[in-house]
Structure formats: C-alpha cells, structure tokens
Amino acid sequence: MIAKDFQEATATRIVDLFRQGHNRVLLADEVGLGKTIVAKTVVEKTGVWRKENNDPDYVVVYICSNTGIANQNCSKLGIAKENRVSISEGRLSMQHLLLAETESRTNVRLIPMTPATSFQIKSGAGTAHERALAYLIIDYSGMCGSYSEELSFFMRTYFIEKPDSWQWYLDYEKWRIDQLPDKRSYLKRMKEELQNYMKEDLVSEIKSVCRKIRKHWDELPDNARLHDILSWQEQKDLINKIRYCFAEISLGMLNPDLVIMDEFQRFKDLIEVDENDHSDGALLSKKFLKDNTDSCVLLLSATPYKPYSTLTELTNGEETHLQGFMRVMDFLINGKQENDRFHTVWEAYSEHLSEIRGDNLSVLIASKNEAEHELYGHMCRTERRDSGIINTEKARAMSIDNLSAANVSSYIELQTFMYKMGIGNFPIEYVKSAPFLMSFMNYKVKDKIDGAMAGKKYPIDASYRNKLIHNMPMSFLRRSEINEYKPLPDTNARLNTLFDEVFSKGEDRKGYPELLLWIPPANKYYKAGSRSIFEQCEGYSKTLVFSSWEMVPRVIATLTSYEAERLVNRRIGNKSVEQQSYYVLPEEADFDDEVDPKKNKRGKTRFLIREQRELVDYPSVWLAEKYDYKAYYGQELFKIRKDIKQLIKEDIDKVAKETGIPTGSLGAKQLLSLLIYMDASISEEECELPERLPSDEDIDTLANMAIAAPAVCLYRALEEVDDLDLRIELARSCCDKSFVSMFNRPESRSIMDAVFEGRRGSSEEKHYEQVFIYCADGNFQSMIDEYKFALGVTGEDFIEAINDSFLQTSNLPYVSQEYYKASFTDKPMKRAPRLRVHFAAGYFDAKTSDKTIQRVNNVRNAFNSPFRPFVLATTSVGQEGLDFHLYSRKVVHWNLPNNPIDLEQREGRINRYMCHAIRQNVAANEDEPDWNDKFDATREKYGANSSEMIPYWCLPEDYPYKYQIERIVPMYPFSQDKTKYDRLINVLALYRLTLGQPRQEEMISILQREDLSSEQMEELFFDLSPYSRKQKNKSS
Hints:
With 1036 residues, the protein is α/β, with parallel strands linked by helices.
C-alpha cells in the first residue's frame, strides 16, 4: 500500500527529525490510522538517507509484543520477503548465523523480534535448533577441549529422547553453515567472538559438567536424562548462560540503522534499565536504546502511556497517566538542557489549564501553543474526530423480555450450593457473562465447588452428590441434548442477544446467515434474485466480541457454532445417518480406552467425489472469456444466465456442425473432457474429441460455471499474471486446496443439503451443480475480487492469502453434566465431550508455542477474510495491534472495560483503513463497477478539500450512510452497566484535554463545569499532525 497524503507528511516529518539529530521519535497516531504504513514510508525514506551518506548496508530491526503482530506487519514494511528474517527464526542467540545468511544475499535486511521468541534467554532451555547451533560453534572453537561428545549429550537434553533426532538438528544447522558463501570467515569470527564473550568461569563450568558426564557415561540412559548427576535447574542455568553468551555475540554484530518498536507501551521497562541489570530485556535496552546514539529509533503506539487514569487506578498504586507521560518524554528528549526546558514549559501549561475559565482562554491557549511546540519536536499524532460512522443504538439495556427465568435460576443454583457448603458467594459477573458455568469456567471458584463436591469441606456420599449435581440443570450442558440437536436452554441474556444479532433472529430478521459460507460481497456484480440466501443476507457483517473473561471466547466459539449447526440441521428433511445426531460415537465410547475419537471423525463421505472435484477445480479459459462482469453490471442473474447460455450454445452448435458429434446428458467426467477440448480449440492445440456434446440442461451448468465456478473466477481474478500456464495452475491449485476442501466439510455438506433439498442437483452424482448454483447465487466473482482489493495483493501473494484464510474445523472440550457426575465415581469417563468450532472462533490462548502461534495466525487470517468464522470472541489479547476490520463492522463489548481508552482500542480493531463499513457504503452509493473507480468518485464528491483520510478511513458527517460500525453493549436492565457506560462515554469526549495532567477525573469535572463550546475545545486540543499543521500554515 502506498502512503496517503497525511501518512506521507508524517513520515517526512519523522525523517526530518532524524536528520536533525533527534534519534528517538514517537509516532502516536490514533488507533486504526495505519501507523505501520507510516513506518514503511519511514523505512523507505531512511534508506534513501543512508544511501546519500554512502552507507551500503541497511538493517532494520522490528520489535513488537507478540508473533501475531509480527506476522501481520512484517510484510507491510516494504522489505522484500527474501530479505526478511522469519519471525520463527528470531531467537536472539541465533541471530549471528541469520545475519551471515542474509548478508550473503542482500545489503537490505529486516529482522523481526518479539519477547517470546527473541528475548527470553533465561527461561526454559531454548529450542533444539538453538542448542544445536550453540554446540556446533563451541565445538568448532575447541574451547571445551576433548569433551565434544559429552557436550553434545548435555545440549541435547532429555527433551529429545532419540539420538537420531538430535543428530538431525545438528546436521541441519551444520548444513546451514556449509551453505554460507564465506563459511570460513564466519567460523573464524565466531571463534574470536566466543573467546571475547565466553568468560573463563563459564568455560570451566561447561568442562566440569562434561567431566561428570564422562565419569558416569556408562550409567547414563539413552534419553539424555542427567537428573542423577545434575538437577534440571542446574542444566537449565548452564544452558541459559551459554544462550546469553551467544545473544551478546549476536547483539554485538547487530548494528541496525533503524529500530522500530511497535506497540511501544508494552516495552516500558526497557527505557528505564539499571546499569547492574543483566536481564534479557536489559541486554536489548542497552544495545538499542540506552547506549545507542547511532541508530534511529521509531516508537509506534496509539497509547505510549496510559492516556487516562481513573481515581481507582490512582489509589491502587498503578503507574498513573502523568508518570507514564513524563517517563516517555524524558526518554524521547536527549540532553539535560532540552529536558529542563520541556518540564518548565509543561508545568506552566498545567498551571494555566487547572485555572481554566471559559470566558477568557487567551493565556491558556498561548501556553498550550508553547507546550504543543515542545511536543511536536519529538512526536507526531494524527487523529480523526468523526462520529458519523459509529452507530450506538445497540449500546443499551437489554429488554426485560430477554431475561428468562433460567437466567436467574443458574445463579440461584450455584449460590445455593455454595451457601450450603459454606464456601462463599458466587460472582454475579460470571453469571452475567456466560451460561453453563460448570461446563466452561476454570477459575478458583470452580476449584472450590469441585473440592466441596469431592468432600474436602464436609463428608458427602455419592447419592447426595448426585442429587446436588442433578439440582444444577442450568449450570451444565448435557451431552445427550447436544447429541439430539436440541435448542440450548436460554440461561444467558447476552448470549441470546448475540444469537439474535448473528443469526438475524430479531424482529428485523433478514435471511439465514447460518447458510452462508462467505460474507455477501458489498459490490455485488448482479442481482441474484430473492431466492438467493446471499441476497436475503445483504449487508451482513462479521461480529467481533470483547470480553474480560477467558471463558467467554470458549463459550461463544462453541455454542455459537453449535447453534449454527442446529439451525441448519432443522432445515434438512431427509437427513443422512451422520446428520441425525451431533456425535458419531455413542456416550459409552467416552468411557472406553480403546476408542480413539480422532479416528472416528464424522463426515467421512465427501460432498464432491473425485470426478466432480476435478471439474470444479478446472479453470476453463473458454468459459472465463464468456462472462465480463462490467458488461453485465447491475443486471438480473437470470438474464445474464440466458445470455451466457446463448453464447455457449453457439460455440457448441459450431462444434456439432463441424464434427457431427451427438448431444446427450453429460456427467462431471464428460463435462471436463468437453472443457479441455474447447480450451484446446482456443489455443489451436490438438485434443481428443468428446464423446457427446452437452444437452440443454448441461449448458445451464456451463453457464453457471462461466459466471461463478471458483476456478474460473480465480483465473479471471489473476489477470495480472502474464504466464498463462502459471495463471491456470494457480487458479486450479487454489480451488482444490481451499474451495473444494471447503465444500467437502461436513458442515458445508449440511448447508448444501438444507439449501438444495428437493431442488435440481440434489442427487449425489450432481453435487457439482449445487456448487456452481450456490457460487452464482453468492456472487462468487464479486466476492473474490473484493477480497483481492481489500488485501491489496496480487498474483501468487493473493493465492497464498486465500489458502491461509480457511480455518480448519476444530473442537473444544466442555464438562457435561454426565461427565462431571462420572468424575466422582470409580469409572470416570476417559475424555470430556467436545463441541465443534467453525461458525465462531475464539482468540484467547496466551501460551507461546509454535502450535499456538500458528493457530492464532490462522484465526486472524480467517476472520479477516470473507470466509468463516463469522464471529470472533477475544479477550484483551486481541485489543491492541491486530487488524480485524476487513469483514467486520460490529463490535460487541461483552463486558465494559474499566478504562474508557480500552473502548477506543477495541473499536479501533475494526475502524480502520478501507474497513467493511467503508466499503459497504462506498459500494452502495456509487454506481461504478470497479472498486478503484468507486473510491475515486467518493473522494471527488466528499473529500476533495480534505486529506485522503476521506474516504479510506472515514466519511463526512453529511454522508448518506447505509451501513455503520455498530457498537453493541448488551447491558443488563436495572444493573450498574448503564451508569458505567455513560461514565466511559463522558470521559472519551474530554480526556484528550487532560494530556499530561495529574488527576484527570477531577480535571474533566472542571472542564464539564466550564461548559466549553466545540470551537473552544478545538482550540485547546493539541495538534501534532504534520499534515494538519502544514494545511494551517498554507491558509494562514
């Protein structure tokens, strides 16, 4: 993406500050305004500056808080993929080899780092690759003498039981070293670096351990378990000393020109480091920040310090807004004299602000302008102050009708039990937040209940325990009821509200979203007719849910997916054996050790069998050329089908006339042969004649294929790929990997059965016809073109993005009433029942592992695509730095945050560049078929005299909105939710005026008392936007 005008202005200002000697600059643009694109432009401009200084090497280090953000943003920083170090290889102790590898390929490099993969040197024992590389370098250096075999055994650790597995890691790292063009120089330098960094006491400690291993060699087990001669803690300590040594070597070799610290607020500990601190973070801080005057440092954060501190937070001893603000400014400002001047100016401004009088602001404004000048020398911030795109109508108390008796019963059940057992009170917030708490929660209160059930508080017999469990029907899911696809008991008003929203169950019900496999495109190329489920769901959007509790994403992911399946299942009259029950295996199987549920997956029967799969995968050039969406834009689908059918029929009649081949009904295999023949005719290649030509009904199928067959549409979407063979193969492979697999999933098959029951193509031999009709009804070409436009990628990158956007159906366990009851007997169930996850997903796992990282990336990519999941529930882990905006314009605040800024952060996940709401409005209000033309027309009408923020980020207040970002806050009636929400909104309106002030709540009260006009408030806001200041200078 090319920077827009306001982003370009900011990047230019930042590099100007670098050139002037300010090597630390903060970019604090409001959430969602594209700080990463500004950073990309800074990378480009700093590279040009380095070239002007005859510096041939250009190294950029990108540091962010987690791998999800790193994977999302590294590709956006404008450095070619081959010049970027993979984040999975970002271990600091291995950077020396990575630097040597990239140095041999290019003089421009991007090195991403995260705390989890790069900085954690003193926890765990590193990865096997890390230990293998360290061993090879130490062994080559000869520093440990004759202890090569013993050192290898030690570095292997018991994590790698088989010697052959360890040897594989050694061989792989040795192969990497062997591939270096100047292997000898690298090894020589590493030997010298080891001699400098590996102190004698560490070498002695390594040799001492090796001597122990040699002494007990014959007694040691093959699995490298050393616990009898060395505790695991001692092993870890020594391994981490070695890792730390290699980390220091890597840092010594790493001399970045530009360091980018994304979501900078996560690294506040790095800017205040004690000289005697030798922790992992201190190592980095001293290298990149404290002792670094050569590298330029760009800090990215919409909230570099806590923007607002409540009185509660002040009394809790947390870092206040003022403390954070001053800490950041002290870090940014180099030199005592400059720092003293800033503090003097700021104290004067604070004093004038505290004495504010609405009838006389002149002195305050002068003081504010001076403070603004000081800030602008070190930071930039662009904001948008539009509210038109945010719809708050659903931020309201839920109707009392939404509260069933079961809502209250679930609380009474749990509270009654805890009262009887004398174990305290049950938290009411849990009951408000989730249903079936005994099935999903894993908090301390659950441990208390389990302990009481087990008789740890008072002796309890089996019959009484069973009675207690039986008396909590609203607190458990029952496996037997799930298995029969029964409706869930209405025990939680918030979940009921969510179901109304995502399944259009309310009074304004619109379509059946459970039947959708992708979001209806905003810019539909034609009208598919009232029978189309996509037409019925026009304007549908994904929903992002934020909760304070980790159990809520699991509850929403499982129960929303179950409800989607149940709604589909009830629409199927003639159910297959697999569709008659939720679980393939009977309940008794949960007690059996011999049964592996992974080997008994439901839905073994594929929807598309082999010949049909090959037909769906085939990107026919002949058919692709029959349909041009621009020529038919806005017309009725049935008319387009009629025209395309006539064009196909003319070609078929011509072949019949030339060859005399008879017509007849064709199956998938014969249709594929026909398409291969017709494509060969276009390229004038020889090809075997088809046995028969298509019947009139078959030509209907070919017309649907020409309009919307996935492979054909992908071929058309790849128009920029000049190599015809590559274009065809990309379309074919993507269709097979992604779309055929999608239609072959059990939940997709049920959807097709529900949609097409009793209709043409419902027989198993004709499933491919259902696929083509479904894709035509769903404006498949429009959907895939919109996805390409929204991503801003082309060719193979686009195909890779599509393949990465499908989330495999997974499942999550829950505690059923049956499972819980059995857990207290002498025959417990061997496994907890599970619920499938597909329509909705959860983004909540905080553990850092390769598997978790991959799953998190998959969830993010899938939610940012038109495909399922349509609901994403997350905790604060999804609140900062991640994009969820491409297909979502609904954000649910399941629990209100304590700090109002968190509300902005959450909504900033979907209120971003070309978000779903923006695209839906632009598509609805402009008649041009092409997306670029639509945005150009909108820009000309509404944004000619403003920055390019319009129309890509926001639209003017007088814009004819058809769609808006919906803020949904399901508040309980008669609760404190409404009071809390009103307080958050009041603070959001004024908190920007309290920047750098000590007691912000009190300051807001003063400002409210003065009742300032909007013009006065505008004068008092700090303007740190380079674009805005430039425009003001032009007009003055």
